[in-house]
Amino acid sequence: MDGGRASVTARAVAAARLHAVREPWDGGRPEDDERLARDVAGELISRASLLKGHLEARTAFVDRVLVRALADGVRQVVLAGAGYDGRAFRYARPGVRWFELDHPATQADKQERLTRLGIATEGIAFVPADFRTDPVAEPLTAAGCDPGERTVVICEGVAVYLETDVLERLLTELARATGPGSSLLLTASTAASDARAEQRRTWLRAAVASVGEPMRSSLSADGAEAIMRGAGWEPAAGEDPSARSRGFLLAVRRLAEG
pTM here? Predict the structure, then answer.
């Protein structure tokens, strides 16, 4: 990714989410989420994509797990690689704190748009970080993230853009910044299962490379779970096998040994 330019792929994801069916939530500000997404998407709104079905399924998975955790009393959410995600608005709840980690250029563009649109950001801490070079645990705690509190950590659409060692380091830092019982939602690019999936993968590789945001890893579900374990997270039991087969993974923060 060009260090001085906001992410083009993050814009494309925002455009795709405009057409997705979202998990219902009592309260929140879904209209602010949609206003931001429309502003970000611009001319991308009507552009068809081979990834439409995948992104809608991925969005539904993350929404469902997040809403379940918020209903269970979680009061701290970390979005790693937040891009133009508007869940902090859509699923806002009094007393819940949101921490958005992302590349400084993308984050600055997002904040400029929010200011221009007049969208309030109380309860959201923006923490700039380049995952390939910057640690995130200390900046998160400095921004108010309580490392002793149960937290939902969302890494949606991030793993594919990071080398595996960088991903493991990021997940380790996120474990350090969150408390026992925390949940990690990680989406990975899993192996193609048919010709359509292979076509989608080939198209995606070419598309993201053309905008300077190349894919740097491709993990099986087993491979992604091995990285999560190495970083202090244990794959959650009882999750939907069909979600796992698509690379939608859920883990919990492992207690420190000894």
Answer: 0.89
